[in-house]
# Entry
Amino acid sequence: MKIIEFLQNSRCEEIEVFCQNRFRDNLIFFQQANFTIFEALQKPSREYQLYIGKEGINVINLQNNTLLYPLENGRSTMLTIHENLAFDPPINDKWNRVCGNKMSMMNENFPYSSLWVNEILNFTLNSGGVEHYHLPSNFLPNLSLFGLGGGIFLQILIEKYQTINNFFIFEESLDLFRIACFFVDFASLFSKVERKGGYIFIESIMQRNYALNFFASRRISTAIIRFELVMYQTPITQSARALVYELHSQSLRGWGTYEDEIRGICNKRSFSLNPMLIEPKRVNAPICVVATGPSLDFLLPFIKKNQEKMIIFSCGTALKPLLKAGIKPDFQIEIERHNYLDGVLREAPLGDIPLLCASVLDKKAKELAKEIYMFERDGSSAANLNAPKFKVKFTAPLVGNAGAALASYLGSDVILCGLDCGYKKGVKKHAANSYYGEEDKKIPEDAYRVDGNFSNDIYSDALYSLSRTSLEETFKVLKPFTILNLNDGAYIKGAIPTHFEDFELKSIDKKEAILQLKSLFKDPQKEQFYTKDTQKYLFEVMVFKNKISDLFKMEVHSKIDLFSKVDAIYDEISATEAKNAFIGILFGGSLSHFLYALALASIHLPYDDMQNFWQKAGELYREGMEKMVENLREILLK
# Structure
């Protein structure tokens, strides 16, 4: 018998026996699956308790002796509410539908990636694709539940759906989660998810890195669409929901493409790599990292006054405002592969300022520098080519991140100026006199409020959120002695919010510190910095190509199968990147775009038979990969 029928038609004594048995079964399950939850469930109730009586099933608030669910005509509304919540989440207006990026064609700048993405989208359009999405009646791709309220609706969903691709549960009250354990068959719930794709967070058990792992390890399937239910509008639940929204937004960015990566490889191979940062060591001087956020406008006097007491790293477009203010930075930091960067540096102008840049920088930009120092930027395929002994971590997604990472490796202390990592209400997006010219002060529609460094009207989006998260990880791992955040932007964990009037810098021997810093950059050939021969990658590329090809040969009959196989292929890409970052990063971005297009396009087909669709995907994979490998071979054998 279905749970809702049982609870509606059974006597109190029968329901009590059912709940005791279900709770016992869940204890046995969590004892094996999650011992932390197992232990927590055995604590006595403090806030809420299950009520089973003549009015029906309800939840008692022990603090004020009230019922969580109202009574109507003397009967509890709990069962009715849960039954309504469980009705068809894809169309139920009590559920939010949080979608990823819409389907879009790639342009001519992506001749290889577009062969995959554009062709599968065209195939979908020619195969009866429709604008609205179409999910099988026995499949839910992704659930985000903020509060269970007793969990009966979740058990109804478990009984109705064959597969729930993955789920995320946050319950702020241990007592309310314990009550859910009287009704929800958690062993059955976890048996319906793919690849252990279920996460449960209770009270303080929730941690950002676990939530991040939920999205990172299921980057494709979680990005398509989430069905979100918010049971209670409380500050704690809203905070958890905001974190999930932020992490979901982050997961949609930074995938990269084969074309971007190959441009970086060509840029690296077109210019002598001498001198290269061989091994980082701290110099006895603070480093001021300057980006072009709006806070830079009021920090320029501080930088000018203290320029002899700190090494100044100008990051990207911060150079022009600094020069306009009469400040000549000690190094200009650049990391991008763009072919127009030389024009930006000419306009600033770079002049005789030393260029401290990633190896992937465009050749024309490198040739502008009268003095150049290079580093390998982790996270790019080019940086991993030939397996260097050292790569600078935490350099993405913005050039300010690279500046902060370099400063954290090389400086005694770090001072952040213009790294706002957010938008402030009523303020433009960049500093005055910057490359960006006149800007409006409108906050983007997809931005959300975050904790401010000084103010409470700071907003972020996926890009700034990624940048802030990367900065926090930088400081946590690299541990500069002191990190001061002087910006009126987002709060950055690990950096001390500091007004520039509230401290003074001591005098340093700046000339000597700069000489020491420059001495860390040496001839990589003499230092035997690169440890692998380029041509060896060609064999490994073929192994990877064939592995993915075999996965595309797996049988796929339904959308449930397709989502499962898409995640399996992404797993293989991630595993390859962990073992061989050159190959994993080089092909992983474009493949991720392809997998995303496959999963997204599939739910716009008004039928569930995916055999022809998957067969076409396999054909496109083999065709596109052949062309990529041929292009790579030509480049590496030059």
Observations:
- The CA atoms of residues 170 and 240 lie 7 Å apart.
- The longest helix spans residues 611-636.
- DSSP finds 24 helices and 23 strands in the chain.
